[in-house]
Amino acid sequence: MEKLRKHILKFAKDLEAIIENTYDGLYITDGDANTLMINQAYERIAGIKREEVLGKNMRDLVASGVIDRSVSVEVIDKKKPVTIMQELRNGKKVLVTGSPVFDEDEGAIALVVTNVRDITELMELKDKLHERTLEANRYLAELDKIKILQQQKIKFATKSKKIFEILELAIKAAQFDSNILIMGESGVGKGLMTRLIHESSSRKDQPFIVINCAGIPEDLFESELFGYDPGAFSGASTKGKKGLLEVADKGSVFLDEIGDMSLRLQSKLLRVIEEKEMTRLGSTKTVKLNIRIISATNQDMPILLEHKKFRQDLYFRLNTISFIIPPLRERTEDIIPLIQYFTERLNERYNMKKHFNPQTTQLLMFYPFPGNVRELSNIIEQAFLISKNDLIEVEDLPLHVRGAVDSQRILIDSENRSYNEIVNLMEYRVLKNAIDKYGSTHKVAKNLKISQSTIVRKMKKLNVRPSDAD
């Protein structure tokens, strides 16, 4: 018997040593939530001395603010294990798991054993990992942006600092769903910029719908834009039709030449933007829309607003982000890269090896390109197709380009000429090109808006004698 008693005492002492030396904190209460035991690890983790809690009820400890929440109480209430995350008053973050120990005879909870694990360092590591992940994602996003910029540099064939700034802004804006307004003269590349925004956005795999606000007749525009239900108007399809806005759902809508939209349709478009819904013609049901609107115009929007030809509220809705693409004459550094780009495209299309000689390229640098990049593309293709050799010469350029450039060069090369010589030479070029183009002095006079007698007199003075002039 004595031997058994010693064995029990030794076991109890060993058990107490195990509990005290466990790395995790242990907190034991009875079935009424009275504190029976805590170990050294709990004191270390929680910063609470055992004399503060031993013999005290957990509900009282919560009420007095010693702890903010008691897992033991929750275990007793729910009669099942409970795990929570907790931040202690010393700032440490802990994972707390309370488990019930049931009385075998009565089935009631006899003890609640709570394990407290310090996860402060683990959470700090998690936070650091999260920060590193965010940083890595930022680097990846920056690399993606650089990659896209390099791709678009090739597509835009640009060396212009201004265009690079616009490309960067466009790619950044593409990451959001804000409406964008692009302004600039005809032919500067507004449509190309719009497609770049769509392809750089999260909507790139969704529809990209182009709507030319100047190209659709007014009486058809509304049905094209909003669609219609069967029998909505005379001649309507018996099956009805989806509008272009509805077709573009989840994608992007490009409203080209938005400045030409009628005030009546502007009002309806404003409702679409504000309510994110539309109604087909002949219907009373609304259709929810998830679209991103990108608009473009070659008109002076402030003037349209001043003359009340464009709604100010719609302008502000469309103009969340805006930029102006400069004309080609303001970024002449792009002319040579564009010539090379368009020539390479044509060589690929026709399986040829043509190229512009330096004199022809240099001459194009003097041309003002009123039609911008679109006109340059047309000039390059025209010269490419009519040239008889692989080397494209000055003579292969359109006549109006050579005439305009000659006038520019006269001014540039005027250092050793008198004023009268420069004026006479420019008049000669103008008259010679006009006669070659129109064929008669009557037509020349009409287009230059001067009298025929003046034309005849100046031709005689400047010795302009084309064979087909009357």
Which labels suit this protein?
19 helices, 470 residues, Beta-Lactamase, five-stranded parallel sheet, alpha/beta, single chain, Helicase, Ruva Protein, domain 3, five-stranded antiparallel sheet
Tell me the layout of helices and strands.
Layout: H1 2-21, E1 25-30, E2 35-38, H2 40-46, H3 58-63, H4 71-78, E3 82-87, E4 93-102, E5 109-118, H5 120-156, H6 161-174, E6 180-183, H7 190-199, E7 208-212, H8 218-226, E8 227-228, E9 241-242, H9 244-247, E10 252-256, H10 263-275, E11 277-279, E12 286-288, E13 292-297, H11 301-306, H12 312-318, E14 321-324, H13 335-350, E15 355-356, H14 358-364, H15 372-386, E16 391-392, H16 399-412, H17 419-438, H18 441-448, H19 452-462
Parallel strand pairs: 6-13, 6-14, 7-10, 10-13, 15-16
Antiparallel strand pairs: 1-2, 1-5, 3-4, 4-5, 8-9, 11-12
Helix pairs in contact: 5-6, 6-7, 13-15, 16-17, 17-18, 17-19, 18-19
Count the E strands. Answer: 16
Q: How do the strands of the widest beta sheet line up side by side?
A: 2-1-5-4-3
Shape: elongated
**CATH H-level homologous superfamily name of the largest domain:** P-loop containing nucleotide triphosphate hydrolases
- The name CATH uses for the topology of the largest domain is Rossmann fold
Q: Work out the helicity level.
A: 40-55%
**What characterizes the major β-sheet?**
5 strands, antiparallel
At CATH level 2, the architecture of the largest domain is 3-Layer(aba) Sandwich
**What is the CATH C level class of the largest domain, in words?**
Alpha Beta
